Automatic annotation (TrEMBL):
Cytoplasm recorded as keyword: yes
Organism the protein comes from: Jiella flava
Encoding gene, per UniProt annotation: smpB
InterPro entries reported for this sequence: SmpB, SsrA-bd_prot, SsrA-bd_prot_CS
Main location: cytoplasm
Lineage summary: Bacteria, Pseudomonadati, Pseudomonadota, Alphaproteobacteria, Hyphomicrobiales
Protein's name in the database: SsrA-binding protein
Function noted in UniProt: Required for rescue of stalled ribosomes mediated by trans-translation. Binds to transfer-messenger RNA (tmRNA), required for stable association of tmRNA with ribosomes. tmRNA and SmpB together mimic tRNA shape, replacing the anticodon stem-loop with SmpB. tmRNA is encoded by the ssrA gene; the 2 termini fold to resemble tRNA(Ala) and it encodes a 'tag peptide', a short internal open reading frame. During trans-translation Ala-aminoacylated tmRNA acts like a tRNA, entering the A-site of stalled ribosomes, displacing the stalled mRNA.
Length: 156
């Protein structure tokens, strides 16, 4: 089954540095357990997942250190911006991810939060390995070469 690309307007938060700092091994889509004010805040587009990560605790997957700012119109019913948020995945997916983190020393990095076609907030989660400095330099060289190649093809 082919995956559809999300429209840019549906993306609520994106972790652009993740692909630079980590080598992405596998990705999966997870649901988010959010309160009403968190959904309203996400639709505003001010959320940040740059420093966030996911971890497995007591048989559940949690998103740690994500920042969803308070929704200004909510008054006293607002949420805590830095609270832990539960991620909704199937048990088999959770076991696979937890095993890879334990065995191989990988990290669970959120790539983006977006709203799907039905308007439900989803998180694209990546199973990743950290890159060291030479790998990052290689990524920069490859990106620059691809840009230069595109320019040369466009000119001819």
């Amino acid at each position: 089954m082919a995956k559809k690309k999300q429209a840019a307007s549906n993306i609520a938060a994106e972790n652009r540095k993740a692909r630079y700092n980590y080598e992405i091994v596998d990705t999966l889509e997870a649901g988010l357990a959010l309160t009403g004010t968190e959904v309203k805040s996400l639709r505003g587009g001010k959320a940040s997942i740059a420093e966030a990560y996911a971890t497995e605790e007591e048989g559940e997957l949690w998103l740690i250190n994500s920042n969803l700012p308070e929704y200004l119109q909510a008054n006293r019913f607002n949420h805590n911006p830095k609270r832990r948020r539960k991620l909704l995945v199937h048990r088999t997916q959770l076991n696979k991810l937890a095993g890879a983190v334990q065995r191989d020393g990988m990290t669970l990095v959120p790539l983006k939060i977006y709203f799907n076609d039905r308007g439900v907030a989803k998180l694209e989660l990546a199973l990743a390995k950290g890159k060291n400095a030479p790998d990052k330099r290689e990524t920069i060289k490859e990106r620059d070469w691809n840009r230069q190649k595109q320019r040369l093809l466009k000119e001819s």
